[in-house]
Specification:
A two-stranded antiparallel ribbon has the order 1-2. Helix 1 packs across helix 2. 37% of the residues are buried. By secondary structure, the protein is mainly alpha-helical. It starts with 8 loop residues before the first strand and ends in a 5-residue tail after the last helix. The longest helix has 30 residues.
Length: 266
Amino acid sequence: MSVSEGNEGLAAAEGNGPAIRSIRPDQPWRWLEAGWADMRRVPGISLTYGLVFLCASLSLVVAMMLAGLSALVPVMVAGFLLVGPMLAVGLYEASRRLEAGLPVQLSDVAFVSSRNVSQLALVGAMLAGAMLIWLQVAGWLFALFFGPIGIPPLSEFAPMLLLTPRGLAMLVIGTLAGGAIAFAVFTISAISVPLLIARDMDAVTAVNTSIRAVRRNFWTMLLWAWIVALLSAVGIATWFLGLAIIFPLLGHATWHAQRALVGDTD
């Protein structure tokens, strides 16, 4: 069942975009509850997606360590998470099928049939572009604070970052820059990808709808962004093992966020 019920007000549609609801501050917790309920209904599919995401994350880390770029692992992992909404397409489809009372098989969600494949690809390109921007910014900051030196291994870079004035300054500025990029990405992707699964619309309209949803429910969506960031951090802190559960949970919950925020009529 969708969590779009309640006393939320409905904003008028803008242009060709759907109307946006004003939601209650406690809605993000309800999205998590609904996401957990979906996981319990299709545990095999959900955990399969979680394990694939876990293996992809670990493979990325191992490849960077073997390449002698261990100091860049936190930067690359943060960038990888920026494209997370595109990697959860199958989870959105699973929740859509559950809501519609349709059978859910792994083949149904692994190869999602959508009228908006090209538009999904366009949003994916936007998110990949944001990831590249973040990596470039991180490189500029390193060069700005440490000059044209080679990137040291993580065992040497961590003390440089945490125990020197230049390192602490870079950490503060990098966190602020990364946070700004992450919130910008969150704004355009909060509901745009599941919206393209749910409706026949173009990527620009989906992204604009996501931006309007965040703008209309700013503090509630800020709480949701904080929840997503916190859970992701917990997953990473467990050597990525927690992501096997957290990734599908957030994927299913994001579907319910889209259903709660967007009106039933275009």
